[in-house]
Design goal:
The protein is an all-alpha fold. It is globular and about 60 Å long. The chain starts with a helix and ends in a 7-residue tail after the last helix.
């Protein structure tokens, strides 16, 4: 079997239409994804499960847990092995094929973390539009982006990428050898802080805003004091890390 045949045999998800859609979503995701979420918030009404405030608290706790699990997962990924997948000139791009850290167990762990964060926010909001429109949109958009990235990586890394695909699942991580991976690598806290502080701040702020907006939609009023007491330390931490990064105290890269 030639390299070309092996690349073609890796698996589904490389149809040209998916690749083209993935390039589009990759290029405009920073603006498009928040706009879609904002549109869902503004055009759909939050609901209390069983019309009961107590059940709403339970569902909020579940949504927050899912969203925070995405943040924690991203932190674990970046702290162990950083991968540059931000693109180049808003196009899919990768300097190297990173296979260390969590990337030895999942080929797209950061996107998995992103999806957990978004789905957690939609659970907190708990509207039909969030489940019927939001969840499928983000799942399909990230699937398309992954297809576009896989097309790029196959073309640039050939057989090496083929073998990587055969060993490592696309999204959900394999647990085999995970303990060894965690024990064999040094966790880079400084890299985590300088790379992830903005994403973490945005995610935590989004949780606070969705909670406030939902209360306003259902109750017609906002009890912001408790949420504000949680958000202010988050903002203070964000500003401290920003200053440290500007001064070079968190390293470079």
């Amino acid at each position: 079997m030639t390299v070309e045949d092996s690349i073609s045999a890796v698996g589904p998800g490389t149809h040209p239409a998916w690749v083209a859609a993935g390039r589009f979503f990759f290029r405009y995701r920073d603006a498009l994804f928040p706009l879609v979420f904002l549109a869902i918030l503004l055009t759909s009404r939050a609901r209390w499960p069983f019309h009961d405030r107590a059940w709403d608290w339970v569902l909020n706790a579940v949504g927050i847990a899912v969203a925070l699990s995405g943040q924690v997962w991203r932190a674990l990924v970046i702290g162990l092995a950083y991968i540059r997948r931000g693109g180049k000139d808003r196009q899919v791009y990768a300097e190297s094929l990173v296979q260390d850290g969590i990337f030895a167990h999942s080929r797209n762990p950061l996107y998995l973390g992103n999806l957990l964060g978004l789905i957690g926010l939609l659970i907190i909001h708990n509207s039909p539009a969030g489940y019927v429109i939001g969840v499928p949109f983000y799942l399909l958009a990230y699937w398309a982006i992954v297809c576009a990235e896989e097309d790029f990586l196959r073309r640039h890394f050939g057989q090496e990428y083929v073998e990587y695909c055969r060993r490592v699942p696309r999204f959900f991580p394999t647990l085999k050898g995970l303990r060894t991976t965690l024990g064999s690598m040094r966790f880079d806290w400084r890299r985590l802080l300088r790379k992830e502080y903005g994403t973490t701040f945005t995610g935590l702020t989004a949780i606070c805003l969705v909670l406030l907006w939902d209360d306003y939609q259902v109750l017609g009023t906002v009890h912001a004091r408790g949420i504000l007491m949680l958000w202010l330390p988050v903002t203070a931490a964000y500003l401290v890390i920003l200053v440290l990064k500007k001064r070079g105290a968190l390293g470079k890269g």
